[in-house]
Amino acid sequence: MPGRVDRFGWIGVDLFFVLSGYLIGGQLLAPLARERPIELGRFFVRRIFRIMPAYFVTLAVYFLLPSWREYPDMAQPLWKFLLSIQNIALHGGTAFSHAWSLAIEDQFYLALPLILILISCWPRAGIIIPCIIFIGGLVLRAFLAWQNPGNGGVSFRGFQSWIYYPTWTRLDPLVFGVVLAAIEKFRPSWWRRLMDGALWLWLPGLAAIVYGLYIGEGDLTVASCIWQFPLIAFGMAALLVCAVSPRLPFRRIEIPGAAFLASIAYSVYLSHKLVIHAVTQFCSSHRIVLTSVPAFVLVEVLIYTVGLILFLSIERPFLRLRHRIAGRSLA
Q1: Whole-angstrom distance, CA of residue 181 vs CA of residue 31
Q2: Fewest 10 Å CB contacts: which of 38, 158, 280, 286?
Q3: ∠ at Cα 122 (121, 123), nearest 5°?
């Protein structure tokens, strides 16, 4: 079941989506708060240089070197990966299926600036659109759950293909993140209250996450399909408020190596399943137990080593190129 099989991945993806909504939303809302237009061209160029080079290199490995894949079959045809819609009608147990969350991110980057431009022309949409997305998500998940019955509740295959992976049912954390960014930029008094009240948010946030995971234990039910996503998204948003609040110590704690891990995290995300598959084959051929300490150490070291190589060889040169291009455009 999703709560069992993908528990930690589920939490990680929702945390990433909340952070992305908050950071990208803040980046796009900053000029609007100063009554300046969003520079769409600059924003899209920055996103392309940040995401696409390492992604296309990894995608080429998956399609040109099939023996390196973690599964024989690709998750989707090439054109879906090129258009960043590989999360639509996806099911697990296929190669490069973890790129589904990147597809949602890419679609978010495309849609959010256009939505914010609409809101800048019609301010009332700033309340209407988030409410429509949130309530619409509840209704849509309920409908899709009813349409995919299975033993004991909802079909797991149907849940994967039409509820877990698609964009239209995974917008809750992104909306929460953008709403937090909008409050910070446009409602400073509300933001100060959030910062002052952060001490009282960490426990409800954790409780929401725990309960969201709890209702997914056992057989999939319609209720779990409806409420798991918003509960976990709310919990992650509450913890984000706690993390950025100056009233709590989290913001002031420096974690050694955190900046380094953050810089290579995207490359690690793209390549980690290739590495795990290679280590699995190596351990099997050398009779090393996959659950042993040597196997665990080997996979951890290689995951971050390959991620570092991908970052240094592909990501960082394009980030520097992006910086030079941005510098010229400002000159």
Answers
A1: 13
A2: 286
A3: 110
Q: Read off the tokens for 36.
A: 């300046």
- For 151, other C-beta atoms within 10 Å of its C-beta total 9
According to DSSP, the residues that pair with 153 across neighbouring strands are 150
Q: Is 254 helix (H, G, I), strand (E, B) or coil?
A: coil
- CA dist 20 and 163 (Å) reads 21
How far is it, in rounded angstroms, from Cα 136 to Cα 156? 22
Burial 243-262 (b: 16+ CB within 10 A, else e): ebbeebeeeeeeeeeeeeee
Instruction: Say how far apart CA 259 and CA 146 lie, in whole Å.
Output: 44
Residues in the chain: 331
CA-to-CA dists, residue 192 to 46, 115, 183, 234, 245, angstroms: 31, 26, 10, 19, 9
pTM (2 decimals)? Answer: 0.91
Task: List per-residue pLDDT tens for the chain, 331 residues long.
Answer: 443 445 556 678 889 999 999 999 999 999 999 989 999 988 999 999 999 999 999 999 999 999 999 999 998 999 999 999 999 989 888 999 999 999 999 999 999 999 999 998 888 888 999 999 999 999 999 999 999 998 878 998 899 899 999 999 999 999 999 999 999 999 999 999 999 999 999 999 999 999 998 887 877 899 999 999 999 999 999 999 999 999 888 777 777 888 889 999 999 999 999 999 999 999 999 999 988 999 999 999 999 999 999 999 999 999 999 888 866 654 4
Element containing residue 154 per DSSP (H, E)? strand 153-154
Cα distance between the two ends of the chain: 54
